[in-house]
Amino acid sequence: MSTDTGGTAATDAGEPALTVDELAARAGTTVRTVRFYSTRGLLPPPVIGARRVGRYGPAHLARLALIEELQRQGMTLAAIERYVGALPDGIGAEGLAIHRGVVASWAPDAVESVSRGELERRAGRSISAGDLERLAAMGVVVAADDGALRVDPGLLRLGVELLDVPIAHETILAARELLLGHARAAAEDLTALFRDEVWEPGRVDAMRSLSAHMQPLVVQALITAFQRSMREELREAFRTDGAGGPTGADAPGEAAGPP
């Protein structure tokens, strides 16, 4: 896939700028599959640009990722169609990512061994030695002794997107450690809370059942709470006392995402 076009940069900024070939490559699928999903109504139509060429954006990519996750959960095509059909009208990439995160939380951790070529195919781009080093530092990829690469599929797309983010590598790693620390603390506190609620000798099955039912709900609650908190923090960070500065709904980050 060609990634040195203005289309890729625009897509990262939220504009629909990918051709169907570029979309398929970024999603790790085929053009035939993209078109099949479009005919079934699983993907919205592209934006028609210059020369009558259809252009796809982040929401299309996020929707393909959600469909892939639903397939991993064993959903049939009819079930996926029902799930996607129930999504809110106009849902964007951020909202779709929340749905994918909640769906993925139902599945156990899965790590796959892939070749360098397969990694690049799934990433939809070439992976340089520096890229591989950054993905390894983020915990997305681990090099095995046999030369294969052990990849966390749930983190791969996020890791690839972070490769092009104009933030220092050290900052990304510091943010990762910060998030993991808070997530671990929240998980410990919630587990203790649920354990106190249902724990009795011989009721291990009840604890496991509660965990299985609560995990997707907790994930969605955490994501929603974080989004709201992050928007509040950004609004305060960019608020200015003088005239002309961004305030309220004009502050960066305020307009995006669900309430």
Structure in words:
With 259 residues, the protein is mainly α. It folds into three domains: 6-104, Multidrug-efflux Transporter Regulator, Chain: A, Domain 2 (Orthogonal Bundle); 112-163; 169-250. It has eleven helices and five strands; from the N terminus they run αααββαααβααββααα. The strands form two sheets. It has a three-stranded antiparallel β-sheet. Strands 1-2 form a two-stranded antiparallel ribbon.
List the helices and strands and how they pair.
Elements: H1 6-12, H2 20-27, H3 31-39, E1 47-48, E2 54-55, H4 58-72, H5 77-85, H6 93-104, E3 112-114, H7 116-123, H8 129-137, E4 141-143, E5 149-151, H9 153-163, H10 169-198, H11 204-237
Antiparallel strand pairs: 1-2, 3-5, 4-5
Helix pairs in contact: 2-3, 4-6, 6-11, 10-11
* Distance from first to last alpha carbon: 36 Å
Low-confidence stretches: 1-13, 241-259
Mean pLDDT: 74
Identify the overall geometry: globular
Number of domain modules:
3
> What percent of the residues sit in helical stretches (DSSP H or I)?
55-70%
The profile of the biggest β sheet is: 3 strands, antiparallel
CATH topology of the largest domain: Multidrug-efflux Transporter Regulator, Chain: A, Domain 2
- The topology string of helices and strands comes to HHHEEHHHEHHEEHHH
* Computed Rg: 20 Å
Count the DSSP helices: 11
| CATH architecture verdict of the largest domain | Orthogonal Bundle
Instruction: Count the E strands.
Output: 5
Helical/strand content category: mainly alpha
